[in-house]
């Protein structure tokens, strides 16, 4: 498969990049590491005539701050750097785990955290060559009219497949977006729609410039990822869990976010509420895991069976909570 022809623009600064992508109009797209976009272009799922490269913009590089005051991660920081960053590994371990579990070592050196938050939704009927998709009559995400997974569905149900997003939601992170109307800061959760096609709640000409991690304040976190091959597969379930335990072991804050179970990450709020104000006993953990698995509604459009993926949501929430509570 070959890349279709396009013009690559290499802005030197963020303001220049913002002008270029606004000027390119519907023919333009942003690219960082290209590890998601270029394969998608080869499969003719996107055919931008102009690409605006973000990878070397100085404003989007680097990791700064500290866990006491909060940290800022440039959107073009490679996943490799995040997975190895000493402060992130020590105090935001779920993020280091998620970044370090994306794809392969080579892809983690090219792929960026900003690209990971904007990664395309996935589906067995979509992540295929043009010829394969044509043979099955295409689907509404590209070139067709109906959803081949749920033919009665008015919308595409492709799966949110970022590893970092559920973790950043659980950590309470925010994103900084720069567009023609200036800069805005939003909670990570506000970046997504539950729609496999229009999955990003941002304008195409808005550039994700940074991710802001709040001060740790005692938050413990972990990330559990399900996939067939541990060496490089996308998640078919991701469980991000973050909680604060007081000195007597009472939980004072909890967040559980499930990835790869819908077109956007899903917060298991009922399960998190069950934990707050109580000690994490094995019985409470099982009660919370049972509540967390209810909002997981995977469909038959990624690897392994949907019944197994749903069952594993309960198992992984239980294992994640046990890990954070220090239980065997
Ligand atoms: C074999 C393989 C395995 C993979 N496995 C995983 C996996 O396990 N988990 C996972 O999460 N991902 C996986 N990926 C997808 C991808 O490698 C990662 O998500 C990576 O982090 C994407 O970052 P990037 O910089 O390469 O994004 P790009 O490909 O450059 O861009 C991806 C999308 O984000 C947009 N974009 C990029 N940067 C910005 C920005 N700063 N502001 C606004 N929009 C932006 C682009 O326009 C494009 O739509 C895999 C890819 C491959 C090829
Ligand atoms: S969920 Fe349906 S519309 Fe979306 S990519 Fe899959 S088959 Fe296509």
Number of helices: 12
Give the beta-strand count: 12
Listed once per kind, the bound small molecules are: flavin-adenine dinucleotide, iron/sulfur cluster
Alpha-beta classification: alpha+beta
Average pLDDT, all residues: 97
Report the uncertain regions.
none
Q: Report the radius of gyration as a whole number of Å.
A: 20 Å
List keywords for this structure.
alpha+beta, 5-stranded antiparallel beta sheet, 12 strands, 12 helices, binds iron/sulfur cluster, binds flavin-adenine dinucleotide, 328 residues
How does the SSE layout of this entry go?
Layout: E1 7-9, H1 14-24, E2 28-31, H2 37-42, E3 50-53, E4 63-66, E5 70-74, H3 79-84, H4 86-91, H5 93-100, H6 105-110, H7 113-117, H8 130-135, H9 164-171, E6 174-179, E7 182-187, E8 207-213, E9 220-226, E10 237-245, E11 251-259, E12 266-267, H10 269-275, H11 282-293, H12 306-325
Parallel strand pairs: 1-3, 2-3
Antiparallel strand pairs: 4-5, 5-8, 6-7, 6-8, 9-10, 10-11, 11-12
Task: Describe what you observe in this structure.
The structure is a single chain. The protein has a five-stranded antiparallel beta sheet with strand order 4-5-8-6-7. Helix 10 (269-275) packs antiparallel against helix 11 and helix 11 packs antiparallel against helix 12. The protein has 328 residues and is of the alpha+beta class. It has helices at residues 14-24, 37-42, 79-84, 86-91, 93-100, 105-110, 113-117, 130-135, 164-171, 269-275, 282-293, 306-325, and strands at residues 7-9, 28-31, 50-53, 63-66, 70-74, 174-179, 182-187, 207-213, 220-226, 237-245, 251-259, 266-267. The chain has twelve helices and twelve strands. The model has no long low-confidence stretch (mean pLDDT 97). The protein is 31% helix and 20% strand. Residues 123, 125-126, 139-141, 147-149, 156-158, 196, 301 line the site of iron/sulfur cluster.
